[in-house]
């Protein structure tokens, strides 16, 4: 996109935009009747300014997508998957997961020290498979398509932190943490009614430019022939079930923006191995640290020296991210939680898209890829 097309009203370094993004990235939790009005209220800015600036950033690509996120681990079996792929086909495997598998979400090529546990697992992806289908079977299908040598499936057993707010975190000093422990959201599949799935389908759709306005959900309700009061009631039901995440304006993580600026440069995946039985205690302590955008309990197994707590942090300065990691390590020692192994996997090439979670979409994908859905279902 030519630089001359946009002015500073689309820049992440503009003071008004920083104020908006510090709220709009990850501060709007659950279902909010009019999210843009809420951003205006929390920032103290006029609604007209909020709408103008978000539209400008969206048109410039500063904001890459706007949507209501879901806690999709409660709607579809999900996992972080590490793939061992020959180096000469690594980029091709990345392209397949990002371009041809709608159930793979965040796809990253990662690296670590050569002698670190799991260093040969360079390709990482998040994966959701709709209810009624198998994570293991889907990974076997993908293994054949991308010619992987091996893969490791790491489902989330608990979520301590989830919320990507890059702008508000960029000045966070190492060691900054909440006064209280992070609570763990246990992962458990929820069953929805047909009407709830219908409403969920329009809640999760990405916004178009024309939808950056007041009355977003009323218009979405009309699009599926439901009265606003019923739509809002069902949305609140979904919120109470713990399925809805946050209304968010997503920024590019690493790619240069229209003006050459970057939101972040480094994506760090932190690993810790803590004693079995102390995962919740450790995750509750680690999840307090403000720099973290994600923190999960995942069992990585012997290939990764039995790592069981993982967290993600982003930033422009690699040494500063290492200082954040050290502050967390020092805190774990201070509170008496032993760590038998720890490491950092650094992200390189990266792409993100929402994972598809609807069963019908999975059947359509199987057909498109020349696979038989009945055979897959019975595996």
From TrEMBL:
Residues 266-334 form the Siroheme decarboxylase AsnC-like ligand binding domain. InterPro entries: AsnC_trans_reg2, HTH-Siroheme_Decarb. PANTHER family: SIROHEME DECARBOXYLASE NIRL SUBUNIT (PTHR43413:SF1), TRANSCRIPTIONAL REGULATOR, ASNC FAMILY (PTHR43413). Gene3D superfamilies: 3.30.70.3460. This is AsnC family transcriptional regulator. It comes from the Bacteria.
């Amino acid at each position: 996109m030519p630089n001359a097309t946009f002015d500073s009203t689309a820049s992440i370094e503009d003071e008004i935009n920083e104020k908006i993004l510090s709220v709009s990235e990850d501060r709007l939790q659950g279902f909010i009747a009019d999210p843009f009005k809420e951003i205006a209220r929390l920032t103290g800015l006029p609604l007209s300014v909020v709408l103008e600036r978000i539209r400008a950033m969206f048109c410039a690509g500063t904001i890459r997508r706007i949507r209501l996120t879901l806690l999709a681990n409660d709607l579809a079996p999900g996992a972080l998957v590490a793939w061992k792929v020959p180096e000469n086909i690594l980029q091709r495997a990345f392209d397949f997961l990002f371009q041809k598998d709608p159930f793979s979400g965040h796809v990253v090529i990662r690296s670590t020290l050569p002698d670190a546990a799991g260093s040969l697992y360079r390709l990482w992806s998040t994966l959701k498979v709709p209810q009624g289908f198998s994570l293991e079977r889907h990974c076997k299908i993908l293994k054949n398509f991308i010619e992987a040598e091996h893969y490791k499936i790491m489902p989330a057993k608990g979520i301590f932190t989830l919320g990507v707010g890059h702008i508000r975190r960029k000045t966070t000093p190492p060691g900054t943490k909440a006064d209280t422990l992070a609570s763990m959201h246990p992962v458990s599949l929820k069953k929805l009614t047909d009407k709830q799935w219908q409403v969920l389908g329009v809640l999760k759709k990405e916004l178009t430019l024309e939808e950056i306005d007041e009355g977003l959900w009323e218009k979405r309700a009309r699009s599926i022939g439901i009265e606003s009061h019923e739509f809002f009631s069902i949305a609140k039901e979904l919120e109470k079930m713990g399925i809805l995440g946050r209304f968010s304006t997503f920024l590019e993580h690493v790619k240069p923006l229209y003006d050459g600026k970057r939101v972040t440069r480094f994506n760090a995946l932190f690993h810790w191995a803590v004693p079995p039985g102390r995962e919740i205690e450790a995750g509750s302590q680690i999840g307090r640290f403000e720099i973290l955008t994600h923190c999960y309990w995942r069992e990585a197994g012997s290939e990764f020296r039995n790592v069981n707590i993982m967290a993600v942090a982003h930033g422009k300065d690699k040494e500063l991210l290492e200082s954040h990691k050290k502050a967390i390590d020092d805190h774990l020692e201070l509170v008496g939680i032993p760590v038998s192994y720890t490491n950092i996997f650094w992200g390189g090439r990266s792409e993100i898209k929402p994972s598809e979670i609807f069963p019908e979409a999975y059947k359509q994908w199987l057909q498109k890829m020349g696979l038989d859905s009945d055979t897959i279902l019975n595996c």
